[in-house]
């Protein structure tokens, strides 16, 4: 793997044999500010797989933070191991010391396999851990604003396609009923949409149906994508949109909270060719990172929600640019994110007299 050719500013390999820590911290860009991105704790098959994930995810964070209008670059960390069996105070604190050693170039937060409580432990060793528990003065669970942003992105897509932001009378197929998916379903039901859901965890589906009996459940994602619906919403693992899935989707819109939904870049053009409007994942799921960023200033949910509300207007800009330029919304989102990194990022090179 050509790490040096990846375009990243810095990749740090972290090892602490005493605690068992093996981690990778990837800093893609600090052009707009310190690199913010979560810590993923996952049993990677190899160190090479862990590095590849860190590089991919940190690049996506640069684009996400830029498009969200944040003065932050992109980074990501991955800890190699099973969070159910390998997570200890000693390991998390060892990891915190590596984050602290970067001097604020990297700001960490939660991701798959880590929680607000874990970040509280990491924060005992570093000033640069965010997304902490409310009990420790942090922003707490970021899934509420993540789902809010996805809902706004879906409304913007509805506005672009059908001339009304309301999803009343539309059918939304939701893949994944975890934290983000469950909050999203609540908003969709309140807006008058019909919801069809699936999840690998039957208990998650049962909780949704107990709260919203009008929601229909299907056995798995293969059944879900063949169900008649207007909007498809992937809210579980990445890579949900591959050539085979897109070929059978009846949707007019795809908009979900999962990261890295496109299995390959070519899928964006396949969606466009089928007349399916794709709301780029890193645009619509930015509510969570907006919430975490607000913690740096003394957390205010109202202030963070107000900033996340901008996702609606940014999504409309992305769709308009895509139409005008004859490109996919994924390409349009990348273009806007890169433009801000280039233009605003140049300000970092200006040194005012002391």
UniProtKB/TrEMBL annotation:
One of its GO terms (molecular function) is nucleotide binding. NAD(+) binds at residues 176-181. Keywords: NAD, Nucleotide-binding, Oxidoreductase. The keyword Disulfide bond does not apply. GO terms for biological process: amino acid metabolic process. Belongs to the Glu/Leu/Phe/Val dehydrogenases family. This is Glu/Leu/Phe/Val dehydrogenase. It comes from Blastococcus saxobsidens (strain DD2).
């Amino acid at each position: 793997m050509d790490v040096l050719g990846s375009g990243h500013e810095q990749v740090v390999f972290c090892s602490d044999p005493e605690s068992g820590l093996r981690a990778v911290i990837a800093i893609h860009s600090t052009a707009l500010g310190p690199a913010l991105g979560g810590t993923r704790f996952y049993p990677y098959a190899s160190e090479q797989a862990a590095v590849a994930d860190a590089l991919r995810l940190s690049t996506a964070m640069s684009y996400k933070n830029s498009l969200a209008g944040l003065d932050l670059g992109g980074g990501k960390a991955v800890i190699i191991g099973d969070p159910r069996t390998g997570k200890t105070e000693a390991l998390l604190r060892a990891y915190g010391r590596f984050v602290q050693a970067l001097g604020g170039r990297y700001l960490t937060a939660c991701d798959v396999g880590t929680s607000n409580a874990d970040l509280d432990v990491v924060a005992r060793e570093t000033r640069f851990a965010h997304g902490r528990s409310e009990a420790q003065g942090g922003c707490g669970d970021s899934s509420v604003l993540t789902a809010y942003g996805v809902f706004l992105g879906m409304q913007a897509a509805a506005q672009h396609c059908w001339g009304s932001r309301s999803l009343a009378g539309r059918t939304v197929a939701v893949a994944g009923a975890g934290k983000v998916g469950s909050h999203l379903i609540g908003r969709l039901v309140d807006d008058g949409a019909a919801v069809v859901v699936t999840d690998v965890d039957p208990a998650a589906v049962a909780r949704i149906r107990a709260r919203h009996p009008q929601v229909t459940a299907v056995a798995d994602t293969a059944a879900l994508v063949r169900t008649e619906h207007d909007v498809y919403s992937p809210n579980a693992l990445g890579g949900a949109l591959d050539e085979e899935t897109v070929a059978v989707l009846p949707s007019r819109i795809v908009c979900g909270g999962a990261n890295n939904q496109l299995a390959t870049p070519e899928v964006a053009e396949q969606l466009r060719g089928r007349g399916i409007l794709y709301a780029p994942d890193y645009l619509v799921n930015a509510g969570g990172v907006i919430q975490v960023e607000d913690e740096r200033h003394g957390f205010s949910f109202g202030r963070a929600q107000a900033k996340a509300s901008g996702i609606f207007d940014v999504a409309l800009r992305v769709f308009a640019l895509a139409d005008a330029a004859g490109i996919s919304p994924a390409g349009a989102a990348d273009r806007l994110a890169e433009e801000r990194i280039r233009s605003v990022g140049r300000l970092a090179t200006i040194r005012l007299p002391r």
